[in-house]
Structures are given as structure tokens and as C-alpha cells.
Amino acid sequence: MRIRYRMTPWWLRVIVVWALSRVVTTGILLWFAARQPVNAWTGAHPDYLSFAQLWDSTWYHIVAASGYPSVLPLTADGHVGENAWAFMPGYPLLVRGLMVITGLPWAPVSVFVSVAFSLAAALVVYRMFRLVLPGETALFAVVLFCIGPLSPILQVSYAESMHAFLLALALWLLLQRRYVALIPVIAVMALTRPSGLAFALALGLHIIHRLVTRARDPFPVWERVLAAGVAVFSGLMGLAWPFLAWMVTGSLTAYTDTELAWRVPYLGYRELVPFTPWLQGARFWMPGPLGILRLVLVVAGFFAFLFTPWARRIGVTLRIWVAGYGIYLLAVFFPQSSTFRLLIPMFPLAGALAQPRSRWYRVLLVVLFVAGQWVWSYYCWWVDGYDWTPP
Fold first, then answer.
1. d(CA 304, CA 309)
2. Which parts pass through the membrane (predicted)?
3. Structural domain for 374, as ranges
4. 274-308 pLDDT, tens digit each
5. How many distinct structural domains can be found in the chain?
6. Among the residues of the chain, which ranges form H helices?
């Protein structure tokens, strides 16, 4: 039996893991759909395709159907209101193209694209982990990626699975130092989810590390030039969408004003000042010094974990990405229920959690992750009356 397993192609093992995980997650989503009352998006007890259209799926549909507004909508008090500029075009325009080709409507095509990219992401995640981990550990890391508490988002009409695939591909290329091949991947990735600036930061840290260690790991001048050029390109792609929003609307701050519109229920109208949103969030969710203290402990604990033996085994490059993305989140995002979804690009940490080989540990972790799917679906996807916990 063990010999037969070892002879099984890696891609077939990953497909089996992915397929089983989708059965579990689909069952959870169908359970909630069967109990879903009437809401702003669906009637009572919607079918799967309808249930997959909640929340920001509507905005992606708007982009696919009618594009972006040339005039920013304003609220009664003159501030920019919520609008489609907050949602990047990679995913909805791909779905739109397939809709034109197939003649099918948004719902089935958008879900198909998300599901297909979730499989593609699982395959590339495995190949990425195999560059730094043994095969058995890499496969269990894929298990954790596929059944993570946020994994239901990979099979609804959101851009997360497409972005996860592109990010895994970019990290796979970066681990192999194939800098030129990164350029088209970064270009699409940065227009799928906000990630260009975070990846530029990670590339900068990667370059610094290679310079520091060049005595034992040569870093030729031509590689330095390539890596620096790709880092600059990633940074420019990170600014491309705000620039395009400015060009179309005539407002220099069109994109940031649009993003800030979603924070109004929490903070009112405030300017974006880097690295202040999490301090504001700490004060909002837990007024007084205790909120700031907890924030400091969480941030310190997160970065300390990156230096543990488990995390160190996934290598410097993947840890640099996780750290760079963490710094990016701290700089620009306000912590609330959708922040959990924004943590998905930290999936390389699944390789750290996959290290222990104890069967009991792994079974317990799988059970906890599946339970986490149910908890997340209850609080963040399922709509229960006046719901203030968007995914």
C-alpha cells in the first residue's frame, strides 16, 4: 500500500486533497444556504450559485457588467461613497470574457473561475513548498491550505482564489530567482488584489538579504539589477490602479477615498495615514491602553513566530513575503471582520504549521480548521438579519 502511494504522481495526490476539501467546504456552505433567511442578495434558502453571490460578489458583478464609474458617487455630506473602484479588474474582466465566449450568465461562470483557480492554486502551492520542504510535509501543507478556516472564499464569486494562484506562482518563481518571469505574473496579480506594493517590499527585503549573504551565496551584479528592476516594477504596478482611478475620475485620491468609504461606520471620515489604522482599530474595539497593549503583543508574537524552528524550515524567502505582507497590512488596513480574508496571502505559514509529524497533532489541526470554516461561515458569510461582519 505504501509503495503504491509513493508511485502516485504528486499532482494526483494534490487533486485528491483538493477534491475532498471541496466536498467538505461545499457541504458547510450548503448547510448554511439551507438555513439562510431572506436578505439583501438572495431569497430564503438559496441554491449554491445564489449563495455564492453574497457581499462583494455584487461589486465584482457590477464591474463585469458595466465597468467603473467616471464620476465618483458622493454621500449626502459630500464624501466619496462606496463604489466599484475598490475592486480590481483582473477577476471580473476574466469572468466577463468567459461569459462572452460561453454565453453563460455571471453566477455559474464566476463560481467556475474561482473553483478552477482554487485547484490551480493548490497545485502550485505544492510545487512551491516542495522547493523548501519534504514531499510529505508539503502535501500536508496543501491540506491546510485547502481546508483553512477561510477556504470557503475560494469557491464563491470573489477574487481570492485567482490571487492565491498568482501569488503562489510568483513565490515559486522567486524561490528559483527567476526574476524576469515574475514580471507578467506581478502585472496580473497586482490588478487582481492589492499586492503590488507588498510584493515590492518583499523583493526589497529579498535583495537586502541576498546582499548580506552574498559571501556564501553569490549575488552577481546582473542579478542585482534584474531583482531591483522587478522590485521597482512591482511598486509601480501597486500604484497603477490608484493612478488609473485618478485618470478616469479626475480625482487624485479616488482610490483611497473609495477604500476609506468602507471605514466610515467604524471611524467616520478620516484621512489615510500609514500605520495608524491598526492603532485606530485597537482603540475602537477595545478603548483604553488594553487595546494598544494587545495590539503590540499580537504584532510582536506574529513576527516572533517567523523566527521559530517551524517557520525557519520554510526558508527565508517565504518568511520575507509573510513579513512584508504583514507590514503592508499594518500600514494601510483597518482591522475588522474582513481582515481575516486579507490574511489568506500568508498561506506560506501553512508550511510552518505542517512541520510536526504527529498523527494526533495533524488530525486535531484538520478538525480545528474545518470547525474554523463553520465559524467563519456563520459570522462572516451567512447573513443573519442586520449583519455587521462582512467577509
1. 11
2. 12-34, 106-126, 138-159, 179-205, 225-248, 284-308, 320-340, 360-381
3. 2-381
4. 999 999 988 888 888 888 999 999 999 999 999 99
5. 1
6. 2-6, 10-34, 48-51, 57-66, 90-102, 106-130, 135-147, 160-175, 179-189, 196-212, 221-249, 254-261, 264-267, 277-285, 289-305, 309-312, 316-332, 339-342, 349-353, 359-376
